[in-house]
Predict the structure.
Amino acid sequence: MAQLDYDSLRARTAPDPTPLPGAKKQLAAYPFGMSYPDPGNLPIMEAHAAMGEALAEVGGTPTVYPDTQGYPPLREYVARRLAQNRSMSVDPDDVLLTEGSGQAIHFVTEALVDPGDVVIVDHFVYGGTLWSLRRFSADIRGVVSDADGMLPDALESAIDRAAAEGRRPKMIYLIPTFQNPQAWTMPVERRREIVDVAARKGVPILEDDGIAEFRFEGSHVPAVASLDDAGVVIHTGTFSKIIVPGMRIGYLIAPRRLLETVMPIKGSRGVTQFGALAVHRFAATRLDDHLARINRVLRSRRDAMLAALGESFGDTASWSAPEGGLYTWLTMHENVDLVDAAPAAAQKGVTYDMGTNFAAGDDEGRSNARLCFCFNTEADIREGIARLAEAAIG
Ligand SMILES: Cc1ncc(COP(=O)(O)O)c(C=O)c1O
């Protein structure tokens, strides 16, 4: 029987179809692309216990039906935690629970970006956000950074260049703490300068702050949103990394009018209420202990990664030394091409995210890679980095 042709029915605004990813491929022996703690360091059984406790308490009450904006006790918890740990002042009514921060980024993009609108990002930036920006046909402009993050002058020039073309950029997307993939953290003074440029030019900042609590050294830097008194900063975070990725719970905090635009985009369904109940109970009773434990693991793995890079790459490359987070950013000298080196590395059991996956500026990123230290043991990091060096520099 001839099958119905869905291409002839596709909405004008729908994206082009992409092949389904299919079953997950087997992980390599040294998977430096994995940006989550390994399963042994995820609090799976504790999350399971937390969900059991929460359901025992609220089961059989209307609480098991989702709230459109998200389970109120979890929104209140998010507001309290952001006040304590990120110096923000948040009204729980301005919090929307989302399916991870990825969904919050997607919704904000849909709310603000028409095809061809200018959006400013770091010249190397998280690929998931690039994906959402491309979905809405944004004109993506990458702005250069130094070791302290996006350069305020370069940001201002990019906004002025767009204005000279008669276009007002719709958004500046920032990951100011343990930036993905470059791993720098923007100091508070730079944050103030960036907020000042955004407020003067009337361009909102979307701050993506999902791994700030993986800090194992140095002092806390307040969220960009805490430095804003002009309503220019939109904030998103997630429990994916700090609890369990499969929970799929994050949040969006935005000025009321923007949230009112996002709500109809989201539709009338809330996020998973089982997930929200579990996250709320886990966060209220176990999250701080879990973070203390995982941050010790991450520090030791970061140290192993930096030592291994020093031993295996010497002065053929440079890399960032973050005070927290999940990865470091490798930059090869002498034009070593890490895209070309990838098949040889894979032969040796090593995989990584090439710089090209994050490129949003003039530099294609062929001599860069993001190397996650969160997933592999210290011994595997040493062995995997040695193998990577063999593949890249012989
Ligand atoms: C910088 C950044 N933002 C957002 C996300 C999306 O996270 P979630 O699982 O909460 O959707 C990720 C996930 O890797 C990320 O690295």
Q: What stands out?
A: The mean pLDDT is 96.
